[in-house]
Design goal:
The structure is a homodimer of 253-residue chains.
Chain A (H helix, E strand, L loop, with lengths): L1 E5 L8 H14 L4 E5 L5 H5 L9 H5 L5 H4 E6 L2 E4 L5 H7 L9 H7 L7 E5 L6 H9 L2 E7 L2 H4 L2 H14 L5 E8 L6 H14 L12 H5 L7 H4 L4 H19 L1
Parallel strand pairs in A: 1-5, 1-6, 2-4, 2-5, 6-7
Antiparallel strand pairs in A: 3-4
Bound molecules: adenosine-5'-triphosphate (ATP) (2 copies) and magnesium ion (MG) (2 copies).
One adenosine-5'-triphosphate sits at the interface of chains B and A.
């Protein structure tokens, strides 16, 4: 099972949209995906039209519930979800004092039966305790980036945080993908930022660029991933192309 | 002096761009503006090409420095800035235990000489301790909103938080403006969300809609507000129009 955090502390860079859409595209190939909504704002949960207030990630990380109790099966074909849960907002403050506070998600996921090919954790726009929990619990990080200048400057700190987590908590952690999202094809600025990303990240930058497509912004209001909401759209096309690159990584192991 | 927090816990809704651009547009009318960057990610500080690592908001809220020591004058004509400062990221965790932890910014700003017509506090995408400090310290909240569905659902929680701060810490606090940002004029979805905002917020929703304009995304890479970077652009036009509405509010008191 590949375990991947979708992280970027800059707001609105496409983390949630990528979680939902990539899950949908991978599930179309028969791969089984588990999504964990680790953002107290519960947008991923809403993206699948689920109730954000039932038991969820909070109960999971505090050990109050086993994974099986909080997994909502088949929120889309081949995709299961652990909702954020109402209490998750309190977690960042409550858990500050707990011994081993950064390893709570990791311990919880260790109890997971290996029924999935992919586990994605959607993070909030911060590098706080919940995001550190995600980074300590997975082997890989994908970074969705908006191809704009203010988003670019956030990357340094994120890479640094991944480094610290690797050194102190999780030696296997690696940035295995950077995804250019919400790309506006006719903009010179986007092209310049993309070039800068390529120079900086080299092979870590996925070749697939996710273009801006209104269907991706509409899908959550219907509680559906793009691959179901509008399978013929550019948004679905781009995420399928990304999924193929992600799958090709399985070979490089 | 009008004191205004730019708040929205949803990421990437235009808070920082609005802080910089509205400041620039108000300063053009001769009004003096002080900006406080209360986001540890220091994007507003970067927007004016300033060093995010000098003394700044952290020293201000902990009382380690007086306002005069951390204000950087004339980052643009008529606009002064308190940078985020390197330590600000630590503040959310360090200050959790302090007595009166939500009122630290308020106490610091009370020491400010009344040299300004407008004070704007730019918040991070969260409803954590720093944002609560901002809400407890100002009389008004402007909410920049992206005209998209995932952004819309964040508003309920924000309004609730404003309510709690009003009841428990700051009885004068009021949402006096909602600003539709990054508006894509040809999109049906944007128009639908705008309609929903109008129904919900009525007069609180500014008539001016800030349209998407690449110049606004380019300006920060030059360390300039849009009104200086490209005064003839749509982005500058829209923010000037917004500034006129903001100024007209001065009459309603
Ligand atoms: N490629 C795209 N084309 C059009 N709209 C998009 C695209 N990707 C995302 N969006 C829209 O942009 C907004 C921000 O995206 P999203 O919520 O996925 O980002 P995020 O990084 O998860 O944000 P946050 O930091 O708040 O968690 C949402 O309204 C989403 O529907
Ligand atoms: N009207 C606009 N047209 C084009 N680009 C815009 C517009 N407003 C903002 N942007 C760009 O969109 C991105 C997000 O905007 P901004 O950083 O101002 O939002 P924010 O709410 O402050 O984000 P965060 O939640 O991360 O603090 C930035 O790259 C910015 O340059
Ligand atoms: Mg998100
Ligand atoms: Mg900002």
């Amino acid at each position: 099972m590949r375990t991947i955090a979708l992280a970027n502390q800059k707001g609105g860079t496409g983390k949630t949209t990528t979680a939902a859409s990539l899950a949908g595209a991978l599930a179309e190939t028969g791969r089984r995906v588990l999504l964990v909504d680790l953002d107290p704002q519960s947008h991923l949960t809403a993206h699948f039209g689920r109730n954000p207030t039932g038991p969820g990630a909070y109960e999971l990380i505090t050990g109050a519930a086993a994974p099986a109790d909080v997994i909502q099966p088949a929120v889309a074909p081949g995709v299961d979800l652990v909702a954020a849960g109402l209490q998750l907002a309190a977690a960042e403050v409550e858990l500050v004092q707990e011994v081993g506070r950064e390893l709570m998600l990791r311990r919880a996921l260790a109890r997971l039966d290996d029924n999935y090919d992919y586990l994605f954790v959607d993070c909030s726009p911060s590098l706080g305790l919940l995001t550190v929990n995600a980074l300590a619990a997975v082997r890989e990080v994908f970074i969705p980036v908006q191809a704009e200048w203010l988003a670019l400057r956030a990357l340094g700190q994120l890479v640094e945080t991944v480094e610290v987590v690797r050194e102190r908590l999780n030696p296997e952690l690696e940035i295995t993908g950077v995804i250019a999202c919400m790309y506006k094809t006719r903009r010179v600025l986007c092209a310049q930022v993309l070039e800068a990303l390529r120079e900086h990240f080299g092979r870590q930058l996925f070749k697939t660029v996710i273009r801006e497509n209104i269907r991706l912004a509409e899908a959550p209001s219907h509680g559906l991933p793009i691959t179901i909401y509008d399978p013929g759209s550019r948004g679905a096309e781009d995420y399928r192309r990304l999924a193929r690159e992600v799958i090709a990584q399985e070979q490089d192991g």
